[in-house]
């Protein structure tokens, strides 16, 4: 079944996540702008990125100009190499991590070897293999535009670093004119291979963001 973009509010659209938890594909947001849309997260593979692009075209949205990473995890950035003519934006800590990820010899053989060395990587690395039927043309793309605390794009989209245990570079994306705050995975527990039994959602972070929203920080 073909998935289409869903209109959230104002100029914000949403390409939903895959409901199959074994197919680790998070949602992708599109913020429409006449000068070129802002895409929030790249999809978990070039194939996923092309599906989002087809949905954007079908919805009549402008092509992407900026691609924003909410954090560096693979299911949010591995589709970046399939987004043409975009400026990739991300937090400086994530840029450093992705620069190291570029040097890994990504392949199904490499994924199998990593799981053999550390079985706790199994769920993540098997999902990566599932997402990547071919590695031809694949490349990890670190951000070309980096920021530390906050950055406002020319179209009025606001990026703010919040960190947290899920990923040190976690960023929230606010679209004040549409009353939308995109959280990414910032309140999730650490990835499975790093998770401890008592790790859970970052309720304190959610409460803080809700308090700021009520005070008008994100409208």
TrEMBL record:
GO molecular function, one term: hydrolase activity
Keyword S-adenosyl-L-methionine listed: no
Signal peptide segment: none
Domain Metallo-beta-lactamase: 25-217
Cited Pfam families: Lactamase_B
Keywords of this entry: Hydrolase
Top-level taxon of the source organism: Bacteria
Name of this chain's protein: MBL fold metallo-hydrolase
């Amino acid at each position: 079944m073909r998935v289409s973009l869903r209109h959230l509010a104002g100029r914000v659209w949403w390409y939903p996540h895959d409901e199959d938890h074994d197919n680790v594909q998070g949602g992708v947001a599109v913020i429409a702008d006449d000068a070129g849309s802002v895409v929030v997260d790249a999809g978990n593979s070039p194939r996923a990125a092309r599906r989002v692009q087809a949905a954007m075209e079908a919805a009549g949205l402008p092509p992407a100009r900026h691609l924003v990473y909410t954090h560096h995890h693979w299911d949010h950035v591995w589709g970046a190499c399939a987004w043409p003519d975009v400026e990739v934006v991300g937090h400086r800590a994530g840029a450093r991590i992705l620069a190291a990820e570029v040097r890994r010899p990504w392949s199904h053989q490499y994924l199998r070897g990593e799981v053999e060395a550390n079985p706790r990587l199994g769920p993540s690395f098997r999902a990566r293999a599932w997402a990547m039927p071919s590695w031809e043309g694949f490349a990890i793309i670190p951000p070309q535009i980096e920021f530390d605390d906050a950055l406002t794009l020319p179209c009025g989209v606001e990026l703010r670093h919040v960190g947290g245990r899920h990923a040190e570079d976690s960023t929230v994306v606010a679209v004040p004119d549409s009353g939308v705050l995109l959280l990414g995975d910032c309140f999730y527990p650490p990835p499975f291979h790093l998770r401890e039994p008592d790790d859970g959602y970052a309720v304190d972070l959610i409460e803080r963001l809700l308090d700021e929203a009520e005070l008008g920080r994100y409208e």
